[in-house]
């Protein structure tokens, strides 16, 4: 996968200016595309559009891909590509939608950059887009085929067979496919759930599969998002809390996600905040079943005990591990104990294995702070994995100096 010689010269010369205007380009692109194709609003998270997160994530991805094409020293882009592809198959993205995206994205580049975009420059960036798009189309086709999913019919009806109140504003839904054919998942994966909202719109949201046995019924654990500081309540989480009861049928995607629990002998450090405990709960359950001898450190922070979801599950599974240490912080509670502290998570004085594999899940600012603390203690960045739901605004920022 590489640019033609002529296009490489042009992209190298113009990457800096495109990067400088990337957010403006993608914001204009989404607005125009949705005006012309409102049906695509049923695929994209509307909240991320309003907040501006999705345009920023797309801008970062396209620029990073372009730099990857022209700079031999740029970071490997394939992990980012795989993660995007998994997101796309969970949302039912189809190959034909890339033609729509390409048309409006390149038109936005032309309009924002104006006279700087000659026909040759337009053609070079069109080539960048289609190398990007075709790589994703191929990977997504493979993922659909591996799962036995028809890309034209990516949603499978699932019935809620049980509902568990896990904590304040947190429920778990146990889902069984209506046709009886369970799709096995891998520990760490997620599904998207799409619901038809009262205003007539349809919205998908992605939820970690919190069940720890791949062949078991799907369990998704949903925190009700309550609006704060003028932001509205979460549309899908509110609908699920109010309407998803035993017997309700929901549209569910194939399991997706490439951030998986590895099977090495490395010590594991699993760090979570709030509802970010969902993949950790699945991982600890899997470890208790298959690898109870693996060294594990469990660090979690929550607001208070009443909001701490899946805590009973995690503790029960942890008791079956031969080498495990747990520590929980409560930021709005004075609760204290042998394995409980009050306040924000602080790993300064915590014993850590020398070369662990680390997994983070929680709000982005939390993960950024914890990652910085871990690297300051000598843990290599490439040994720290993280899960972000929604647009990934933590992608490595590419250098455009080569442009």
What's this, in brief?
With 403 residues, this protein is of the alpha/beta class. It contains 11 helices and 12 strands. It is globular and about 65 Å long.
The total of beta strands comes to 12
What are the secondary-structure elements, in order, as H or E? HHHHHHHEEEEEHEEHEHEEEHE
Question: What is the helical fraction, as a range of percent?
Answer: 25-40%
Average predicted local confidence, pLDDT: 90
Distance between the termini: 19 Å
SS field, number of helical segments: 11
Shape by Cα distribution:
globular
Structural class: alpha/beta
Q: For the report, how would you describe the main beta sheet?
A: 6 strands, antiparallel
Low-pLDDT stretches are 391-403
* Radius of gyration, whole Å: 22 Å
Strand order of the largest sheet: 4-3-6-1-2-5
Q: What share of the residues does DSSP label as strand, in percent?
A: 15-25%
């Amino acid at each position: 996968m590489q640019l033609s010689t002529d296009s490489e010269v042009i992209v190298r010369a113009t990457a800096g200016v495109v990067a400088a205007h990337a957010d403006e380009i993608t914001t204009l692109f989404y607005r125009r595309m949705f005006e012309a194709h409102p049906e695509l609003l049923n695929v994209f998270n509307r909240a991320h559009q309003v907040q501006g997160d999705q345009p920023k994530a797309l801008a970062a991805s396209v620029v990073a891909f372009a730099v990857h094409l022209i700079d031999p020293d740029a970071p490997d882009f394939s992990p980012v590509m795989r993660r995007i592809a998994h997101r796309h198959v969970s949302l039912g993205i189809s190959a034909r939608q890339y033609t729509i995206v390409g048309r409006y994205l390149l038109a936005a580049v032309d309009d924002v950059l104006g006279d700087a975009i000659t026909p040759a420059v337009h053609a070079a960036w069109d080539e960048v887009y289609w190398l990007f798009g075709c790589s994703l189309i191929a990977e997504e086709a493979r993922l659909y085929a591996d799962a036995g999913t028809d890309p034209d019919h990516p949603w499978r009806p699932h019935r809620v067979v049980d509902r568990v109140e896990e904590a304040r504003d947190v429920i778990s839904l146990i889902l069984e496919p209506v046709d009886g054919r369970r799709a096995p998942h891998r520990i760490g994966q997620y599904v998207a759930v799409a619901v038809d909202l009262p205003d007539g719109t349809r919205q998908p949201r992605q939820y970690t599969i919190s069940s720890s046995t791949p062949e078991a019924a799907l369990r998704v654990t949903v925190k009700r998002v309550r609006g704060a500081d003028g932001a509205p309540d979460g549309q899908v989480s509110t609908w699920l809390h109010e309407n998803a009861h035993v017997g309700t049928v929901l549209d569910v995607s194939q399991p997706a996600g490439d951030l998986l629990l590895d099977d090495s002998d490395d010590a594991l450090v699993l760090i979570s905040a709030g509802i970010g405990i969902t993949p950790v709960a699945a991982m600890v359950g899997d470890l208790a079943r298959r690898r109870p001898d693996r060294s594990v450190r469990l660090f979690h922070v929550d607001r208070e005990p009443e909001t701490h979801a899946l805590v009973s599950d995690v503790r029960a599974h942890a008791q079956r591990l031969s080498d495990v240490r747990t520590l929980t912080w409560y930021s709005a509670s004075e609760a204290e104990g042998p394995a409980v502290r009050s306040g924000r998570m602080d790993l300064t004085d915590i014993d850590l294995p020398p070369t662990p594999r680390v997994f983070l899940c929680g709000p982005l600012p939390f993960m950024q702070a914890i990652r910085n603390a871990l690297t300051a203690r000598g843990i290599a960045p490439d040994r720290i994995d993280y899960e972000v739901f929604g647009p990934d605004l933590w992608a490595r920022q590419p250098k455009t100096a080569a442009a």
